[in-house]
């Protein structure tokens, strides 16, 4: 470095030191919510929008006959058979609605096109479905079938993931289920050459049927 270059560098250093230390960034306000308010104040509508945005199929069902019609339409469009349903309460509901289902595990490995389960909660912010191994569906019915169907109620919709986890803590306490999973749209990966593939590690389609509360 020449003498003139050295003098110029030292001059800039002296000028910087004379200006004093750099200002500290403003202290974060930890009381401010991390996320902005939901786009829609109606949690059910907000969830439906988020769920469809991540690739889910949303069906609103105002009654049991409407649920039966929506399920029949889905099966016809996708050209699939009847779903496997292992939860007794859901079996009773579908029987009342006149919906056919597979209640046992006969030929499950060979013919698991559809699995129909309940869920723990629905998250409006992310469009996620919170499932657990606490029900008779266990771990397999929401993961193994090619298409995962979920039957839920409007009262299960919460705003944030934290709300869903607090609900789980209140429901199960120290006896948390052995598996809790947040499902946000169909299973997908782009690990190989950045090519998006659906169904690589789970169902390639997820559809949610939101049944209105019983009066």
TrEMBL record:
Pfam families: LUD_dom. Residues 106-210 form the LUD domain. This is Lactate utilization protein. It comes from Hymenobacter mellowenesis.
């Amino acid at each position: 470095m020449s003498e003139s270059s050295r003098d110029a560098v030292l001059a800039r250093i002296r000028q910087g030191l004379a200006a004093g230390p750099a200002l500290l960034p403003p202290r974060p306000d930890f009381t401010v919510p991390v996320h902005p308010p939901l786009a829609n104040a109606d949690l059910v509508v907000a969830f439906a929008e988020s769920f469809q945005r991540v690739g889910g199929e949303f069906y609103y069902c105002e009654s049991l006959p409407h649920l039966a019609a929506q399920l029949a339409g889905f099966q016809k469009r996708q050209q699939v058979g009847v779903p496997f349903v292992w939860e007794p309460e859901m079996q009773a509901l579908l029987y009342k609605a006149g919906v056919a289902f597979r209640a046992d595990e006969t030929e499950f490995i060979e013919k698991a096109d559809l699995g129909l389960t309940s869920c723990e909660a629905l998250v409006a912010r992310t469009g996620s479905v919170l499932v657990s191994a606490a029900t008779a569906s266990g771990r397999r019915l929401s993961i193994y079938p090619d298409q995962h169907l979920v039957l839920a109620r409007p009262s299960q919709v919460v705003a944030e993931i934290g709300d869903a986890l607090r609900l789980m803590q209140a429901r199960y306490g120290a006896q948390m289920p052995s598996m809790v999973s947040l499902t946000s749209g169909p299973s997908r990966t782009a690990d190989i050459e950045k090519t998006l593939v659906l169904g690589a590690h789970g169902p390639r389609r997820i559809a949610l049927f939101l049944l209105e509360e019983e009066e």
